[in-house]
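Re: your question about Asparagine--tRNA ligase

S., sorry for the slow reply, the queue was backed up all week. Below is exactly what I fed in.
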Amino acid sequence: MKKQTIKEILEDYKKVLHHDITVYGWVRTFRANRFIALNDGSTINNLQIVVDFENFDEEIISKISTAASLKIVGEVVESQGAGQAVEILAKKITILGDNFTEERDKTILQPKKHSLETLREQAHLRFRTNLFGAVFRVRHAVSFAIHSFFNQNQFFYINTPVITGADAEGAGEMFGVTNFDLNNIPRDEQGDIDFAQDFFGKKTNLTVSGQLEGETAAMGLGRIYTFGPTFRAENSNTTRHLAEFWMIEPEVAFNNLEDNIDLAEDFLKYVIQYVLDNCKDDLDFLDKRFAEEQKSKPEKERAKEGLIEKLENVVSKRFKRVSYTEAIEILLNSKENKKGKFQYPVENWGTDLQSEHERYLVEKHFESPVVLFDYPKEIKAFYMKLNEDGKTVAAMDVLFPGIGEIIGGSEREARLDILKQKMTDMHVDEHELWWYLDTRKFGSVPHAGFGLGLERLVLFVTGMTNIRDVIPFPRTPKNAEF
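Result:
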């Protein structure tokens, strides 16, 4: 007989009412030697097990403690208490895994509050808490919805390399990959590291983006997307940065900038609506937590809307589309800028916008998600299409409340001569990217794409405030535990 999860039992309990069933799970609480709150991770909701302790050996009862794992056979009955529709009258209890006595008082699974930092240090246990159970079930739903959206829209899923010789961003903040004995690194006649003797015969790194390889696939398959791990060796210990994170990068042949913006908006709304439709219990829990967290903030820093309300508003509102030039005018003339309240003052056209500027536009000026487009060419990557004015590129960023930039993308420079000139101007090695230039030689077409950091989207959807709390095992400077 198929094992049933607690989620299945609670959602369709009428099928098993007054029947004996077998359930498995971990003890959340055990009250008065009578009531077990059992959870198996399938839902945030517990299944109440009623124990007549007189019918069980004292040794069994003594081992039923928080975090212990159990197999229980019993009858499903309508609950006499508040808070649950059904409960199980236990007939047989098997201890699958004890919570060892000496650890019981130390475990983070005891029903008391722990800091998120403490939970982060116990990543092997934090999945058992209500908070992180909810976060990671939502992360799963977001990931599933991403694949579903692209599949429904005839995109092909492409796996781009984790190990690469290309630096898509041109920032140089990449982790090197080598098979050298670090105590005996070969060098050439000039004293430089001789990568020709390394495993791949050249200098290689962990990828910061699958975009360049994705573009080559789009030139034959039309619509593709990548979804995989990316790495940045940026020494930033902030709530917004990870050294390892997951990126989604669609690339579409024959799309221009406007098509790209439409795709980004449709994509985000689809994914968020999927979570609203399929993660109600977890979102209700996260919404209450979000509200409690807001109460502890100074009034002027509190969010204007609850978590679920925020998500519903993003889905229902059309994203405001604003040129970079218009955005700079708004920021230059804002009270915050004139009164010196921005940490990074906006002084002129050409300023590279910071998170505080992006959030001002979204949260205070427009009060809706914003898409900024047509940025100065100097502050954007070499592969972005040069506009006719010669000053701007066909770039776009989607800005969300509480987050700032959540998507960055562009129409790509499809003209070989202009792309080569931009690479020269920005000191990008043509020889390293010969294969990328070749995509502009064999039937080049207008094409566009964008990148979305999965963790930033999960951060937004769950209402969490530290990006380390929405990835199972965060990798940050001086931290590679687990």
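The mean pLDDT is 93. The radius of gyration is 27 Å.

Happy to talk it through on Thursday.
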